[in-house]
Specification:
With about 450 residues, the protein is mainly alpha-helical. The chain has helices at about 20-35, 55-65, 80-95, 105-115, 185-195, 205-220, 250-255, 260-270, 285-290, 305-315, 320-325, 335-345, 355-360, 375-380, 385-395, 400-415, 420-430, 440-445, 450-460, and strands at about 5-10, 40-45, 75, 95-100, 140-145, 150-155, 160-165, 175, 200-205, 225-230, 235, 300. About 45% of the residues lie in helices and about 10% in strands. A three-stranded parallel beta sheet has the order 1-2-3. Strands 4-5-8 form a three-stranded antiparallel beta sheet.
C-alpha cells in the first residue's frame, strides 16, 4: 500500500455502543494498527433530536474499556455543517448538483403515482434540467446531486468481491435540505474525504449507500476509498441480532454479564474473522495477524456460551490483584486481603466476574449462615451425626494446613465407611451455605480454624 492507511469508526450517538458497532470499531482499529496507519473516531451527531451527550459518553467509555485508542482529535460531524454546505455549493457551481423546487405535495403525488403503477419509489428528476428561474420568487428548494443515469457502477469490495449496481437505480438524492442543513449522505462523504480515510470498513447494511456515495465522490473528483463491507452479526437462530437474543450494548456485557474487556475483544475478533482453528488470540497477536482477507462473507453467529467459556479462560489468566479490585465493590463486607488470598482458587470456577463475586461471598458472610435449598438438603441428609463427628475431628487438631486437614477428613470418611463426597458435601453446606464452592480444604484454610469450627457448630 503506497499511501498510509486511515480508517474511521463513525457511530451515531442515539443510544449505547451496539455489539455490532463495537466489532466494526475493532476491525477498523486492528486494520490501521496492523498497517501502522491511523484509526480515527467521528461522532455523527447531526440528528440533534436523538443525539445525547450521555450516549456520546457511553460510546467513548465503551471503546476505552475495550482498549481501542484513536488517533488525532475526535471529529464531531455537527461542527462541520458549514464545510458540508460549501461542498454542496461547489457541486452546484460545477453543474453536478441542482436546485429542486418540488413542493412536499408534488413529491407525495409523485410517490402515489409510483405506488399505483407498482414502480420503485424514487425522485423522478423533474427539476434536473429545468432553469431555477421557472420557480416562484423566494420559493424554498433542496439541493440534489446529479447521479449517473446510465451504465453500471462497480466496487471491488475487499470482503464482498466485485459488486455492481445499475446507475438507473440511483435517484438524485438530496444533499442540502430546504433549511440549508446537510444530509447524512453529503456529510459522510465530505468528512471521510477531509479526514483522509483510505479504507471504509463497515457493516454490509451500508453496501447500497456505497454506490450513492461513490457518485458524489466521483462528482467531486476525489480519490475513491477501498470498501470492505462486513456481514452483520446474527443470533444463534440465524436471525439478525436483536434484543430477544440478549444484551446488545457493550456496557451490558461489562456491567450486567461480568465480561472482561480482553475476553470481549477476543470474541468480537473471532466473529466473522478467523485464523485457522485458533480461538484465543491476544491483542498483540491480533494486530500482527489481522487482514481483511480473512473476513468471511457470511453472517457470523453470536454464541453467549462461547463468550462465557472464553471469559472463564481470561479470568483464570488475569492478575489476582486486578480481579480483587474489580470484585471487591461487588461483595458485601469484602476484605480485599482475604479476597486476594482466596483469588487463585476462586477464579478457577468462574466464567463471569459476577460468578467470581458470588463464589467469594461465603468468605465474608455473617454467622449463622442461611443455607440455600441444595445446601440445606445436604445438611438434612447428614443429620445422623456426621456434622458432629467432623467438628470433633477438626477441633482436635492444631495443624490447620491444607495437607493435614485433607488427611483428617479422608480418614474420617474411611472410618465411617463413606465416600469423601458424603463428608465433603455437608461440610461445604455448613461452611459456605452453598452446594458449590472451591475445594473443601481450600475453604477450611481460607476461613481459618475458629470461623470454620464455629460455622460447623452452628449446624450441629
Amino acid at each position: 500500500m503506497t499511501s498510509p492507511v486511515v480508517t474511521r469508526f463513525a457511530p451515531s450517538p442515539t443510544g449505547f455502543l451496539h455489539i455490532g458497532g463495537a466489532r466494526t470499531a475493532l476491525f477498523n482499529w486492528l486494520f490501521a494498527r496492523h498497517h501502522g496507519g491511523k484509526a480515527l473516531l467521528r461522532i455523527e451527531d447531526t440528528d440533534k433530536k436523538r443525539s445525547t451527550q450521555e450516549a456520546i459518553d457511553a460510546i467513548i467509555d465503551g471503546l476505552d474499556w475495550l482498549g481501542l485508542d484513536w488517533d488525532d482529535e475526535t471529529v464531531f460531524q455537527s461542527q462541520r455543517a458549514k464545510r458540508h454546505a460549501e461542498v454542496a455549493q461547489q457541486l452546484l457551481d460545477s453543474g453536478n448538483a441542482y436546485k429542486c423546487f418540488a413542493t412536499p405535495e408534488e413529491l407525495e403525488q409523485m410517490r402515489e403515482e409510483q405506488r399505483a403503477a407498482k414502480k420503485p419509489m424514487r425522485y423522478d428528476g423533474r427539476w434536473r434540467d429545468r432553469d431555477p428561474s421557472e420557480a416562484p420568487a423566494g420559493a424554498p428548494y433542496v439541493v440534489r446531486l446529479k447521479t449517473p443515469q446510465s451504465g453500471k457502477l462497480e466496487i471491488e469490495d475487499a470482503v464482498q468481491g466485485i459488486v455492481s449496481w445499475q446507475a438507473s437505480e440511483l435517484d438524485d438524492y438530496v444533499l442540502l435540505r430546504s433549511d440549508g442543513t446537510p444530509t447524512y449522505m453529503l456529510s459522510v462523504v465530505v468528512d471521510d474525504h477531509d479526514m483522509g480515510v483510505t479504507h471504509l470498513i463497515r457493516g454490509d447494511d451500508h453496501l447500497n449507500n456505497a454506490f450513492r456515495q461513490l457518485a458524489l465522490i466521483r462528482a467531486m473528483g476525489w480519490p475513491e476509498p477501498v470498501y470492505a463491507h462486513i456481514p452483520l452479526i446474527h443470533g444463534n437462530d440465524g436471525a439478525k441480532l436483536s434484543k430477544r437474543h440478549g444484551a446488545l450494548g457493550v456496557d451490558a456485557y461489562r456491567d450486567e454479564m461480568g465480561i472482561l474487556p480482553e475476553a470481549l475483544f477476543n470474541y468480537l475478533l473471532r466473529l466473522g474473522w478467523g485464523y485457522g482453528d485458533t480461538e484465543k488470540i491476544s491483542r498483540e497477536e491480533a494486530i500482527k495477524l489481522f487482514s481483511l482477507d480473512n473476513v468471511g462473507k457470511s453472517p457470523s453467529r453470536f454464541d453467549p456460551k462461547k463468550l462465557a467459556n472464553l471469559n472463564g479462560i481470561y479470568i483464570r489468566e488475569a492478575d489476582d490483584a486486578r480481579l480483587v479490585e474489580i470484585a471487591t465493590p461487588m461483595i458485601a463486607n469484602a476484605d480485599p486481603e482475604l479476597l486476594l488470598q482466596a483469588m487463585p482458587v476462586l477464579k478457577e470456577r468462574a466464567r463471569s466476574l459476577h460468578e467470581l463475586a458470588d463464589g467469594a461471598g461465603f468468605l465474608f458472610a455473617q454467622r449463622p449462615l442461611a443455607p440455600d435449598e441444595k445446601a440445606q438438603k445436604a445438611l438434612d441428609a447428614a443429620a445422623e451425626g456426621i456434622i458432629g463427628k467432623i467438628h470433633e475431628k477438626l477441633a482436635s487438631t492444631g495443624d490447620w494446613t491444607l495437607e493435614n486437614l485433607e488427611i483428617i477428613v479422608k480418614q474420617l470418611a474411611d472410618d465411617e465407611g463413606l465416600g469423601l463426597g458424603k463428608v465433603a458435601q455437608p461440610m461445604r453446606a455448613a461452611l459456605t451455605g452453598q452446594s458449590n464452592s472451591p475445594g473443601i480444604f481450600d475453604v477450611l484454610v481460607l476461613l481459618g480454624r475458629d470461623e470454620s469450627l464455629a460455622r460447623i457448630a452452628d449446624q450441629m
